[in-house]
Write a structure and sequence with these properties.
Helix content: under 10%
Pfam family, one: PCDO_beta_N
Radius of gyration: 18 Å
Protein name: Protocatechuate 3,4-dioxygenase subunit beta
Family: Belongs to the intradiol ring-cleavage dioxygenase family.
GO molecular function, one term: protocatechuate 3,4-dioxygenase activity
Strand content: 15-25%
Largest sheet: 5 strands, mixed
Shape: globular
Order of helices and strands: HHEEEEEEEEHEEE
Strand order of the largest sheet: 3-2-7-8-9
InterPro entries: Intradiol_dOase_C, Intradiol_dOase_core, Intradiol_RC_Dioxygenase, PCDO_beta_N, Protocat_dOase_b
Number of helices: 3
Distance between the termini: 16 Å
């Protein structure tokens, strides 16, 4: 079965002056494509038995006491280019707390740390490629890119395949956030339809009354409808 063709022009350029970090980090010479070795394709694998009972519950998995903020469910499926499910994939997420601050020693934003929020979780996709996280909606935060740039509310996603050498990273944004259109990182993507694939729509069918809203974020690994990945434009 042949792979579906992809539009490489939809991917952001490596050098994007509006995103200041790309100026010193972008390559100055042509890229070289190396052949994957056996170690990159076959191992080591993540031990599924290491997964904890609360690993996909970021509200409780840090201290056991509930984190502060708006409770949300983030769910979806991991799919290939033919919409076939990808079971057994390891998904990891990390995010800022409700005030927009990460639990990281280099994060100096004025928002307070939540003592009960660690900001990271993980889960394994089911036979139908499905996953689910219970978490707190992250806050927006300023960053030193321009005079007054702010990152939209977002959650970082990491997808592992059959080995740690098969890893894709992306970000999920929230429907209706006005900062998405103003973000210099988002604006490196030239195709708005591709940006839309990174925005999770509100899903009231999965929301829990008097408890939490839900957002649906499907991840497509390859093909014309693939999710935009930060570290590997051609997909898994």
């Amino acid at each position: 079965m042949s792979l579906l063709p992809r539009n490489r022009n939809a991917h952001p350029p490596a050098y994007a002056p509006g995103y200041k970090s790309s100026v010193p980090r972008s390559p100055s010479k042509a890229l070289i494509s190396g052949v994957a070795t056996a170690s990159e394709q076959t191992g080591p694998m993540f031990g599924h038995e290491v997964l904890g009972e609360r690993d996909n519950n970021l509200i409780l998995n840090f201290t056991g006491q509930p984190a502060i903020g708006e409770r949300i469910i983030v769910h979806g499926r991991v799919l290939d280019e033919y919409r076939r499910p990808v079971p057994g994939a390891l998904l990891e997420i990390w995010q800022a707390n409700a005030g927009g601050r990460y639990r990281h020693k280099k994060d100096s934003y004025l928002a307070p740390l939540d003592p009960n929020f660690g900001g990271c979780g993980r889960t394994i996709t089911g036979e139908d490629g499905s996953y689910e996280f219970l978490t707190i909606r992250p806050g927006a935060y300023p960053w030193p890119n321009g005079p007054n740039d702010w990152r939209p509310m977002h959650i970082h996603f990491s997808v592992f395949g059959h080995s740690f050498g098969q890893r894709l990273i992306t970000q999920m944004y929230f429907e209706g956030d006005p900062l998405i259109a103003r973000c210099p990182i988002v604006n490196t993507i030239p195709d708005k339809s591709v940006v839309d694939r990174l925005v999770a729509p509100l899903d009231m069918t999965r929301a829990l009354p008097l408890d939490c809203l839900a957002y649906k974020f499907d991840i497509v690994l390859r093909g014309q409808r693939q999710t935009m990945f930060e570290n590997k434009p051609e997909g898994m």
